[in-house]
Amino acid sequence: xxxxxxxxxxxxxxxxxxxxxxxxTAKNRFGTASTTGRLLITEPxxxxxxxxxxxxxxxxxxxxxxxxxxDPALDVSFSWAINGQLIDFQRDRDHFERVGGSISGDLMIRxxxxxxxxxxxxxxxxxxxxxxxSAILVVKGPPGPPDKVAVEEITDSTAQLSWTPGRDNxxxxxxxxxxxxxxxxxxxxxxxxxxxxxxxxxxxATVVGLNAWVEYEFRVxxxxxxxxxxxxxxxxxxxxxDAIPDTAPTDVGGGGGTKSELVITxxxxxxxxxxxxxxGE
Length: 281
What we know:
The chain has 281 residues and is mostly beta strands. The chain has strands spanning 2-3, 9-10, 20-28, 31-39, 46-49, 54-57, 62-64, 67-69, 77-82, 85-86, 96-99, 106-109, 118-125, 130-140, 147-154, 159-164, 175-181, 189-190, 192-194, 198-199, 204-208, 215-223, 238-239, 250-254, 264-267. The chain has a five-stranded mixed β-sheet with strand order 6-14-13-9-10, with no helix packed on it. Strands 17, 18, 20, 22 and 23 form a five-stranded antiparallel β-sheet that branches. It is rod-shaped, with a radius of gyration of 38 Å.
């Protein structure tokens, strides 16, 4: 125990025996004045269960533990912060809830979203001290949409495409799927490419098996181990080049008409161009 000139009393290496009422008395030639305070000695607060670094997939739910052992004489409060911002449990009650009793500050996170990833800090405040414990939460999800899909070169049956990658959202992109649509298709359809499998390191591919003289739009979808992401915006509409039909009309027939006419009928393959020859030809 040491007494400083300004009246401060210092007790080093406090033990339970130091718990008592302490009275400070000041005197001068005009009289005395005193004040009394009680010193309460408590057991140190210990964190008994801490959160750990975790990886989780979007849409799942988890509990981050934060549990303590403390002196029963102490009032305890828990709070949580994510990336330096205190969590407002009223405003964000759809996703965040503190669960547990008076010595538990466990954090439940429901329906985790990508923006819930980051550093979580549990703050424990008592009457005499403040403790913290933290963990990193990595949220994985399907990739974000690729961007800037462009047709670099086009022929009557192929199109050379390029694009830029989107966010991988915590899991590397493993591949891409190319889709196309025309005025003659219902929605978007997957198309054949060269190479047949477009891996996650590629940002170009050649679409094959297209029809001649058709207006196409293309888009790209990325995938990772979590699943398929959102598709890219569509490319600008581009028409394939013209070409000679590769199949002849079928079921040619006819009959009827006037004495100077002959009605001819036939079936043609999809988008075939044709010329009707005169009788003499």
